[in-house]
């Protein structure tokens, strides 16, 4: 019975999409182009270098080297191997869904147990600093100081999620790690052994890294475009307004203005659109806006969650712990926003002289915004060149 309901649900969703696409062709095309622009201007060029570099570091044993050195830190704090520190750092630097991609690779390399991988993926998918500072704080809110608050809430909440998830699966039997004295010598030995196990020449490793990274990013692009279209369709049909009305009642009970309900609902599907809509509400008190933005940044949005689910499907890592962690992250980030709003935002603005934004914060904000604009300007060229490079590698391999 359960499988029949699932089949009906999937078929109904597909029919709904088909009917909506036929009914609103112009708006669908506009939403599709918007998603495509986001992918080839920002997502592809910003993630590709990280993905390729990560594949090379895994192949050459550098991740194993880092894992041995960081084991005394990661194991007591998060109950994951030291290699998780690499995933954590790369996830924060490059943004989602890098954490899921790298966790899956380490699981495939058998550097993580299933339970360890589920713990790790729960707190290594984060928004990158360029998006928080360049797009959200400066681009949408025109307030560089706000980026500091959002970043502290986002990454601090993520760390708290990791500390909580260390207790996940404690009752299950896991593969025991070999206890050895941590030293640079042992780390170098682990690097060398890992490198010898991979007999591929450098050209093959680099080519595989490029192909695998491009394939993953093409899949991500498809999700971004489809969720951009889906979000637009449910808004045109009126579903968004109906559900937003219910959310508005809950917000009112919680002391949050009801005007944020529709932007919040949109942000649950697509973070960029939700953050942009929240910044446009222009409420007299910014705290409710910060709380809602912090939650949707932590929740990742259903678009990113679908990308993560697709990546995790390549292994035996379950999606449920990750989804639970997203709700937990949203709660932590929103709570931190309430607690830190005065010391990290209001007090900093009050202490500034002659400007609503401190000089150092304004300077940093302009740098983030400039980096974001340069990425939008040259991103399409980088994407096209990378796709051409990947096509050439595939053609060369097929011709052999």
Automatic annotation (TrEMBL):
The answer to keyword Iron applying to this record is no
Q: What are the alphabetically sorted keywords of the record? A: Membrane, Transmembrane, Transmembrane helix
UniProt cross-references to InterPro entries, sorted A to Z: Gate_dom, Spore_IM_YlbJ
The residues covered by the Nucleoside transporter/FeoB GTPase Gate domain are: 43-136
Membrane as a keyword of this entry, yes or no, is: yes
Q: Which Pfam families match?
A: Gate
Q: Which residues cross the membrane?
A: 47-67, 120-141, 147-169, 205-227, 233-253, 290-311, 323-341, 378-395
Can you tell which superkingdom this protein's organism belongs to? Bacteria
Per its record, how is this protein called by name? Answer: Sporulation integral membrane protein YlbJ
Q: What is the lineage of its organism?
A: Bacteria, Bacillati, Bacillota, Bacilli, Bacillales
Provide the gene name from the record.
Answer: ylbJ
